[in-house]
Write a structure and sequence with these properties.
alpha/beta, Spore Coat Polysaccharide Biosynthesis Protein SpsA, Chain A, about 325 residues, about 50% helix, 9-stranded mixed beta sheet
Length: about 325
């Protein structure tokens, strides 16, 4: 007699998560209205209290494994995917929680929409502010992923395991700490995307959170993943990727003229994709504006005021002077 596998595998990597966060996470899974799941937890060489917490639960759906050596987030996630038996993979970070109806609603949607292989939901951040990408169709979500950053809250995502296996897609260690975003980028063109317009998870954002303490590195890696998608989709080879990635990580370019030249060349390479070319330009323009807002240094603001990028991105002198005064001169007085 064949063994009946669960419909869903909930995948949660753990590394020294705060005890109260981990318990909230586990409880939120066990409280699901949809019960046909296995809950796989991969302990990435955490301190002993993690094992104690997990083993304090007496539920046969919990499967706990511990890495013999630290594999990092990508390695742990891949190990969980490989051992998962479910048709659908529900991602959940160990410091986040899900609403009790999350699995039921996502399973129902994927059962009814077989072309969708990556399904997110709206989310709250620290149980207060709302995170959502809007009401987009699959193409709009793809474009948002490529040109506006990650439109999916990782702990809300449910993946179709057959899609990952068919296309040999796994998390890539070279894209840590943006490995989840890079995986979604790898799925572009291979499956459809969707987001349920309902809050079904809560994302924790705090000082030790990777998105907080490794923001610049995450931005840099995410930009590299973006360029890979553009090259694959448009069948072009972009130039100046390192300079553009540094720019995306809110760094003032060492050579603004070189960066401007690279962006111009890449825009020409994308001329057969006018919509993508426009979004590529606007993405870099937004990077420039964010740098102007973020740099609270008189020296940095002086460099930006004199940069050829101001005219290239069509920023008025008045707006740039405003940044120079409010971000540069005021910070200098302090």
């Amino acid at each position: 007699m064949n063994k009946k596998f669960p419909k869903v595998s909930v995948l949660t990597p753990i590394y020294n998560t705060k005890p109260e966060f981990l318990r909230e996470c586990i409880n939120s899974v066990l409280d699901q209205t949809f019960g046909d799941f296995e809950f796989l937890l991969c302990d990435d060489c955490s301190e002993s209290y993690i094992r104690d917490i997990v083993e304090s639960y007496n539920d046969p759906r919990i499967i706990y494994i511990r890495n013999q050596k630290n594999l990092g987030a990508a390695g742990s996630r891949n190990r969980l995917i490989d051992m998962a038996n479910g048709d659908y993979l529900a991602l959940l970070d160990s410091d986040d929680t899900m609403v009790e109806t999350r699995l039921a609603k996502q399973v129902d949607f994927l059962d009814k929409n077989p072309a969708v292989g990556c399904l997110g939901t709206w989310a709250t951040v620290n149980k207060s502010s709302l995170f959502h990408p809007g009401r987009f169709d699959s193409q709009q979500l793809e474009e948002h992923l490529v040109f506006s950053g990650c439109a999916l809250c990782n702990s809300s995502v449910m993946l179709r395991k057959s899609t990952l296996d068919k296309h040999h897609i796994r998390y890539k260690t070279e894209f840590i700490p943006a490995e989840d975003y890079a995986l979604y980028c790898d799925l572009i063109g291979l499956t459809k995307f969707a987001v349920l317009p309902e809050v079904l998870c809560d994302y924790k954002f705090y000082s030790e959170n990777i998105s907080c303490c490794q923001e610049q590195k995450q931005k840099y890696i995410a930009a590299v993943a973006q360029y890979n998608v553009i090259e694959r989709y448009a069948n072009v080879s972009l130039v100046g990727k390192e300079e553009m990635a540094n720019f995306a990580a809110f760094n003032i370019p060492q050579n603004s003229k070189e960066l401007r030249r690279a962006i111009k060349i890449n825009l020409d390479k994308l001329k057969e994709f006018p919509r993508w070319a426009e979004m590529f330009f606007n993405t870099n323009k937004n990077c420039y504006r964010l740098i102007c807002y973020k740099k609270r240094s008189l020296t940095d603001q002086a460099r930006l005021l004199c940069s050829p990028l101001r005219r290239f991105f069509k920023q008025s002198f008045g707006w740039q002077l405003f940044c120079f005064i409010t971000r540069g001169m005021f910070s200098f007085k302090k």
